[in-house]
Each structure stands twice: as structure tokens, then as C-alpha cells.
UniProtKB/TrEMBL annotation:
GO molecular function: ferredoxin-NADP+ reductase activity
PROSITE patterns membership: FAD_FR
Protein name: ferredoxin--NADP(+) reductase
Region feature Disordered, mapped onto this chain: 47-67
Domain FAD-binding FR-type: 81-203
Secretion signal, residue range per the UniProt entry: none
UniProt keyword terms in alphabetical order: FAD, Flavoprotein, NADP, Oxidoreductase
Enzyme class: oxidoreductase
EC number annotated for this UniProt entry: 1.18.1.2
Family from the record: Belongs to the ferredoxin--NADP reductase type 1 family.
Amino acid sequence: MAAVTAAAVSLSSFPAAAKAAAASPPSPSSCVTYPRRSAARAVRVQVSTTETAEAGPAPVKTEKISKKQDEGVVTNKYKPKEPYVGRCLLNTRITGDKAPGETWHMVFSTEGEIPYREGQSIGVIADGVDKNGKPHKLRLYSIASSALGDFGDSKTVSLCVKRLVYTNDQGEIVKGVCSNYLCDLKPGAEVKITGPVGKEMLMPKDPNATVIMVRRKRNAC
Ligand SMILES: Cc1cc2nc3c(=O)[nH]c(=O)nc-3n(C[C@H](O)[C@H](O)[C@H](O)COP(=O)(O)OP(=O)(O)OC[C@H]3O[C@@H](n4cnc5c(N)ncnc54)[C@H](O)[C@@H]3O)c2cc1C
């Protein structure tokens, strides 16, 4: 009876342990979680055994378990027609004078009314109207604070925003509407917030899971 053994290692922080698991005879479907070496590292080895055609039993199907912590995640509590009005508590430029471009870190009060999770975004509606005289459309911004907020009291939400400035085909300097509005916000100013939005980027359920983040070069995120 020939058997094919497949071992899938989510991230090989412990190659020796992973090799040992692959070498030893696995049960038909087993999942081994190795003790973590530090808070940021963990390895989870999933070992499954598949019988070949001439052998007997069909492969054991394992139930698909959601890896995300998405139970009870709130989305779209505040919509563009009735946004939450928060207040800018602080706004700090975090890029140096010689850096190409400008990025700002800002904190808004929420009084706990925007129950967001790490990985979600909020919408911001800039003050003023567009070229058609209509209110500006919201722009999305990834939340840059933990769910507790920068002050640890679950009453704030933070953003990290790159100021968009570019030169158009006519050689004119154009300023992005919302990023410039946000980067210019002064402490005390009101800000219209929607959301929270998004369930795609939530953290994994396993607090010790390794998270690899890959970024496209566009604005601050
Ligand atoms: C899910 C999500 C999360 C995001 N998170 C963040 C974040 O955390 N931080 C952040 O800074 N941004 C973030 N963004 C981007 C953000 O939503 C805005 O798109 C950005 O701030 C620009 O908005 P604006 O109103 O300033 O520019 P707008 O006034 O909307 O102008 C943008 C438009 O200008 C034009 N344009 C831009 N650059 C050029 C160029 N070089 N040449 C010619 N035309 C150009 C394009 O047509 C573009 O659509 C996120 C976007 C999404 C979808």
C-alpha cells in the first residue's frame, strides 16, 4: 500500500521541528502546533495522508475553519448620509523635511462609537463640495491604531495619511481632495467619519500566528 504524505508548513520558523514532524508517521489528518519561541513567531504544521488509487479508504475531508477573527465584527455603522462627527485630537507630520512626500499621523475622537478592529478602514468625507457642487465622496483610510486606540481607552481612531500632490498633463499642480483636507486638519476640528468597513484584512484567530504584510506602492498604505 503506497501512501503519499504531504506536509504544509504555514511558515517555517522551526525547520528542525517541521522536518521531524514530516519524517515521523502521521495520523491520517493531524495538526501540530509547536511551542512558540517568541510572541511574534509560531509554526503550525498541517500533515495529511492521502492513499493512492489501489489503496482503500478515501481521503479524510477536514472541516474548513475560518482563520479570521470575524465574529461580531461591526461594519458600516455610520454611512455617508449620517456620518459620525468626531474631532481631531492631534495631527503630526511623521516624515522628515527631506523625505519625498508628506505623511501625517492623526487621532480622532470616537467616544467608543466606532467599534473597529485591527485591519478595518474608515471613510472620511472632506468638507466642501466637488466641481459639480455636490458634497465630496468619501475616501477610505486604513485604521492605523489598535482597537484600543492610541490612548488605550477605545475612544479614538488613528490614521496615517499621505498627502497627494501631483502635476497633471497640463503642468498644473493638483492636490488630492481628502488627503490634503486630512493632512491640514488642526486639533479641535470636526471630521465626518463613516464605517468601520472591511473584513478582508482582519487578524488571524491565533494570536501567535505569523503575519506577513506585503505592500503595493500607493499612497501611505
Ligand atoms: C481600502 C483603502 C484604504 C486606504 N488607506 C489609505 C491610508 O491608510 N492612507 C492613505 O494615505 N491613503 C489610503 N487610501 C487611499 C485614499 O482612499 C485616497 O485615495 C487618497 O488619500 C487620495 O485621495 P484624495 O482625495 O487626496 O485624492 P483625489 O482628489 O481623490 O485624487 C485622486 C485622483 O487623482 C489622480 N491622480 C493621483 N495621482 C496622480 C498622478 N500622479 N498623476 C495623475 N493623476 C493622478 C487619480 O485620478 C486619482 O484617482 C486607501 C484606499 C483604500 C481603497
